UniProtKB/TrEMBL annotation:
Family named by the database record: Belongs to the DNAAF3 family.
GO biological process: axonemal dynein complex assembly; motile cilium assembly
Naturally occurring in which organism (per UniProt): Adineta ricciae (Rotifer)
Keyword Plastid: no
Protein name, as recorded: Dynein assembly factor 3, axonemal
Length: 422
């Protein structure tokens, strides 16, 4: 298994307000967005924070563990400030989002949230309200997918004696397997990846202490000198292994990224220029670290979301339903077109598989296609990145999408295209 693992717990691009790239906005109809393989809710959070129009966001991922985390973070964000204060929300979010271990207070929140989420996903009509203006719709999921989600939430609140998650052992096993003979000099390997890969590709403010602690033990964010002693069960997932005799066995562990880290999503750049200190430098290095920027951005986004009163609906699509969606093979997908489609770098093969159907069936006139570049997939070399970027252009062309000005996106992490029906 490579450094990225086989499950995407966080994406490889900074959060974006996606409606910024939607040209054909109407006050009469809700904006419709489709997110394929985003890995987390960073784009959803950023988009909702700065969108005042009615909006419908459809989400499609490859694993139900990712859906479970989406639901957890959405519930956290939209919990009333009277129940959970802004700073506490931010700390819960960042810990659960990124840290292999969390503090006891956050663990207690996770157990309580899991109980509520079980009630939500087993709701007979498949829809529930997180706020008066926020509807979550899981009605399109298959029964077995809802059952699996319920099982995940049950695991989150299970006593460790009954369903253990030895997070530290799981992490160390992955690191040893990945580094091999370099394990004994792993700090040197971490420094090389930080300075010669992450920094060279545009991530300048991540420092050696932050990155080294995450690579060593899965601890990305140190917030308010907390003691992180409890395993973060939201980062557990199952992976099927095949033995030499052909038998298959599923094993629960940590099978996500151990190489890039969760810092890109919220820690690459401040979302605004309101605080000059965020860009201040000393000895040509940023004073504010990726942790500082992540906390600053998440606080801002959660606070801004509370101020919106537009109608919001977030719809979860069944796993592997892209073919049904593009061919409108079922009644529920007919006449469903999107003003913007975002595709994470792990699911760009969907464009190749669906070809012209990808655009003609589900893209509205003049809609936007955003493709996440694998810039921060560190197992890829520079020449591979350049080849993949050219491949993206070919895939977009197959879907009748033409390149659009990309200068507004920093750090070369997104390619922007426009659907051309001519």
């Amino acid at each position: 298994m490579d450094g990225a693992g086989n499950i995407t717990f966080w994406g490889y691009s900074p959060s974006l307000c996606l409606t910024k790239y939607v040209d054909n906005q109407s006050n009469d109809q809700p904006i419709r967005l489709l997110l394929l393989g985003s890995g987390d809710i960073r784009h959803v959070l950023h988009t909702l924070a700065f969108t005042t129009s009615p909006i419908h966001i459809y989400m499609l991922e490859s694993q139900l563990e990712v859906y479970a985390r989406h639901l957890l973070f959405l519930q956290l964000v939209f919990t009333s400030i009277d129940q959970i204060g802004l700073q506490e929300k931010c700390e819960h979010y960042l810990e659960l989002f990124a840290n292999l271990h969390i503090n006891t207070h956050t663990e207690q929140y996770l157990k309580e949230a899991a109980t509520q989420l079980i009630q939500h996903v087993t709701n007979i009509n498949g829809q529930f309200q997180l706020a008066s203006n926020v509807t979550i719709d899981v009605s399109l999921l298959k029964y077995k997918e809802k059952d699996f989600l319920e099982g995940i939430f049950q695991f989150w609140r299970a006593p460790p004696a009954k369903q253990p998650f030895p997070a530290e052992l799981a992490w160390d096993g992955r690191v040893r397997q990945y580094l091999g003979a370099r394990y004994d000099t792993r700090r040197n390997a971490f420094d090389w990846d930080l300075h010669m890969k992450l920094a060279e590709r545009g991530f300048k403010r991540l420092n050696a202490q932050e990155y080294g602690d995450w690579r060593e033990k899965g601890l990305a964010f140190h917030l308010n000198r907390q003691d992180y002693t409890q395993p973060n069960r939201t980062l557990a997932s199952a992976h099927v292994f095949q033995s030499t005799d052909g038998t298959k066995q599923a094993r629960r562990g940590y099978w996500g990224d151990i190489l890039t880290g969760p810092f890109v999503a919220h820690g690459l750049e401040p979302i605004d220029n309101d605080d000059p200190q965020m860009q201040s430098k000393a000895n040509d290095k940023f004073v504010k670290t990726a942790t500082d920027v992540s906390e600053y951005n998440v606080l801002k986004l959660i606070d801004q979301v509370q101020l919106q009163n537009n109608q919001i609906k977030i719809i979860f699509l069944p796993l592997n339903s892209i073919a049904d969606l593009c061919t409108a093979s079922t009644q529920r997908y007919q006449n469903l077109q999107f003003d913007l489609i975002y595709v994470g770098c792990g699911l760009t093969h969907y464009l190749n598989e669906q070809g012209e159907h990808f655009s003609s069936s589900i893209m509205s006139r003049g809609s936007t296609l955003l493709l996440e570049l694998p810039t921060f997939l560190l197992d890829l070399k520079q020449d591979q990145l350049e080849q993949l970027e050219k491949r993206y252009d070919e895939l977009a062309k197959t879907a009748k999408c033409i390149p659009r000005d990309n200068e507004e996106v920093k750090a070369n992490v997104i390619k922007i295209y426009k659907y051309d029906q001519s």
